[in-house]
Amino acid sequence: MLNNNLLRKLDVQDIAIFLSLFKTHNARKTADELSVSPPTVSYSLKRLRESLSDELFVRESSGLLPTARSVYIEPYLRNALEAINRSAEGLGEQDDRELPLELCVPEAFELLLLPRLMKAALECTPRRILHMQKIREKLPTEELLAGKVDLLCVPGPGAYFQLHPQLQRQPLFEDRFVCMARGNRPRQVSIDEYCEALHVYPSPWQSPRNMVDLWLEQLGRSRTVVAWASNYQACLNMLEQLPCMLMLPESLLPTLRIPPGVQINQPPLGCPNFTFDMVWAPSNDSPRRRWLRQQLLNICESGLPPTAQP
Questions:
Q1: DSSP conformation letters of 147-175
Q2: Which GO molecular-function terms appear in the entry (predicted)?
């Protein structure tokens, strides 16, 4: 039972508008985010002010800023809206389970995680259907927020791109680079040798640069890429014939064929390690999406294939 009769006037849309205003500080952005008209936002804000006996948002040069009352009640209203959303999930859970899962992932995901994820999917009743799409240079932010993509996997922690604030990320495992090149024995590659060498570049997500290039730029250095390929194995195969180098995530070594005479070398000192992260939109979470993330966590917790030591 509501303690205040005035609260009976509020509905779920009013709560959603309050939370959006609290986040955006802008009535127009709230209208666009919730696909409602600006007058609807104004009317809802008026009703909120009357029901909660407070101005709630004060117009300043930087936008609509929340009052102390708004700051106090925001966690309660956010929890209430999340509870309403979760209560509705169960109504269509069976249909939700039968929908395909859309994943936007790099080649590393398909090599390391997809076989065991697919095994878990086939053991479900009904069977899960997984659709893989390749990551492009621009991350599918809008598709994630709209629910058209269920999960994105990227290297972390976001060294050369920024995630939308409404997206959430969680590391799956840690990784590091190794430097592949022809040679008689494994060795530590110096930064000068690395920058002076020619490089082949695996572009498993259609981007002309990666975190290695950003790291070199921070040092005022660069590398010369003479060949691009769409996958790691093609780059490795080129090393058998070319006097080039290839930077490779160490975790992938057990999944690839290393040509004779190609050595697994230590990268230049200071080369950054990274994590492999999953990214999703909490605003449109669902049982099948939670199942997907939990399966990936379980797979990584059980351990990736052991890597060869250089």
A1: TS--EEEEEES-TT----TT-EEEEEEEE
A2: DNA binding; DNA-binding transcription factor activity
Task: Give the 3-state DSSP-derived string for 9-34, with helices as H, strands as E and coil as C.
Answer: HCCHHHHHHHHHHHHHCCHHHHHHHH
Domain range for residue 189? 177-265
Interstrand relation of 101-105 and 151-156 (parallel, antiparallel or unpaired): parallel
d(CA 145, CA 44): 24
* In a domain? residue 141: yes
pTM: 0.65
Note the pLDDT tens digit of each residue in 93-127: 445 667 889 999 999 999 999 999 999 999 987 88
Whether 107 is covered by a domain: the verdict is yes
- CATH number (domain holding residue 250): 3.40.190.10
Q: Please report where in the chains the tokens 């609509």 appear, as a residue.
A: 64
Q: Using alpha carbons, select from 65, 173, 50, 48 the residue that is nearest to residue 113.
A: 173
- 71 and 151 share a domain? no
Please state, in angstroms and rounded to a whole number, the distance separating the CA atoms of residues 179 and 187: 9
User: If you write DSSP's letter for every residue of 28-75 in order, what string do you get?
Assistant: HHHHHHHT--HHHHHHHHHHHHHHHTS--EEEETTEEEE-HHHHHHHH
Yes or no: say if 267 and 189 are a contact pair by the CB < 8 Å rule: yes
User: How many domains does the chain contain in total?
Assistant: 3
- Tokens coding 296: 């990936």
**284 is a domain residue:** yes
pLDDT digits (tens, 9 = 90+) for 171-217: 999 999 999 999 989 999 999 999 999 999 887 555 667 789 889 99
The whole-angstrom separation of Cα 235 and Cα 241 is 11
